[in-house]
UniProtKB/TrEMBL annotation:
It comes from Mucilaginibacter gracilis. InterPro entries: FIST_C, FIST_domain_N. Residues 218-357 form the FIST C-domain domain. This is Histidine kinase. The lineage of its organism: Bacteria, Pseudomonadati, Bacteroidota, Sphingobacteriia, Sphingobacteriales. Residues 23-217 form the FIST domain.
Amino acid sequence: MKTNQHHFLNGKWKNQPSEINAEKCQLVLAFGSSDCIVNPEVNIFLKSTYPNANIVFSSTAGEIINDAVYDNSVVVTAIEFEKTVIKCIETNINQQSNSFETGLYLMSQLAADDLKCIFIISDGTFINGTELVAGFNKNNNRHIPITGGLAGDAARFEKTFTGLNNVPTQGNVIAIGFYGNDMLIGHGSFGGWDEFGQERVITKSDKNVLYEIDGKNALDLYKQYLGDYVSELPGSALLFPLSIKVNGSDKNLVRTILSINEDEKSMTFAGNLPEGSKVRLMKADFDKIIEASSTAATNSFTSIKTHRPGLTILVSCVGRKLILQERIDEEVEAARSILGEKTTITGFYSYGEISPFNVGSQCELHNQTMTITTFTEV
């Protein structure tokens, strides 16, 4: 596996020296701010540079390249695989009946005996991430690793843009299938947030819209905990996500609030919150959040053991970026310290992260985590 990286910053391209054969390159990943990623000149440059590659675009809430985080730029990673075959499929939510059917369709298009893993780049505003993941899981009987993330739009939560081989637009979901036994996939996902307060039960919800906790209005209850942050809703909700344990599961998921409805007294989250699930509020511990990146990186070695990754994709939550602020580079550096200096690192800040909890388990939608996927050809 060979890689080459480019960085579009302040209207100019910064290109790194590389031995990659541009005409043999099969995959290009372009992660950029909403304004930059829809710039037609970016698409033109990448198509002319890598004429035979599948080019996958995603808007972000921040771009990751090597051990640094940027805003208002585009980070590009081109990959030339030596033995691995890839297949990219795109669909739009308007072409499917719902998010579940979107995942089901994409999985059916990629299914094959030698499918090694799937990486998803999804719209972050029109898609219900929980339902999308459920669609992918429906017929994934072999528990093929499925990872990825939902596109971002800084902290605006207005429009996200994704695309395959064209200037990205809204509502698209792209799935990349990797085929062959020469590819080793590692994955890890960890949050590092602290739970506080008593455990409560969701008593009224509709998919990802929460109405009542313990029989009380959820929004009013939530506001009691926010104190001075109430006036900054919904943005301040990123600082206080919910930990959810779904109907008897021993695994806790994290859910981030996307919006609030003062008239209905409801809150819309990035993933589903089934009735009967148990929830607790969470708050940030800076050092634990940064340390979580090291944990996610360490966990990514579970399936690849002593092999060192050639490519690493980091997908971290916008909420972590807003919390860490000037310390944001530290969580990328923490991951790099575990992954090693030789791996090519790219990634973005997202509206949701996709990864299994453990090797051999189904994928889940996460919020407020650092999620890491590694690729190694052997």
